[in-house]
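Handout, section B. The chain below has 206 residues.
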Amino acid sequence: MFDFVRKHTRVMQVLLFLLIFPSFVLFGLEGYNRIRERGEAVAKVDGREILQADWDAAHKQEVERLREQAPNVLFRMNVARNGSRVDAIPGPDNRLDRQVPVSGTIGADYVADGAPVTLGGSFTFKGGGRVRTGLSQSEVLPIRRVLDAYASWKVDPRTQLRLSFQNILRQDYAYATSYFDDTGRTELSTITPTGTLIRLAVELSL
């Protein structure tokens, strides 16, 4: 079995990517962020708890190992968390208006052997949720999931053709505002459809 894994490293990497990527698309970063904040154990092996820091260290080593075995594939990932509190507005959720609480991007680029072709894609997650924007007003920001892909062909050292697909998931932008007081509550919501942008560009190096 181990001989099979060594001989088919590229196939195993694709399978791992296919297993990880859909879960990232479906659940985003919120679950990961909650585990990281609590600092709780993420697994248990032979009665020993594996903490988040241990998990991150092992994951980093595995990524470096895969990168050494697959020099043609470049994986990239970033995660950002933003927090704030507006003292003039009562809580909860009294953070800055339109502030994205958590966001992240995961992507990969593949350079073909023996051909001037590069393929790549990325998935971006932006968290949302309710934001208290006034004494009697709040907003609900949408959770955004954006999937992009591209293919490029280097015609010569100075010319490159690039075909890109942006916003493949075509997720509608849903936004809601609430007004409330002692007499009741009013909810207003808007849904803006989106589309996929397909672009073919010629890139020239001067």
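Note. Confidence is low (pLDDT under 50) at residues 24-30. Compare this with the example in section A.
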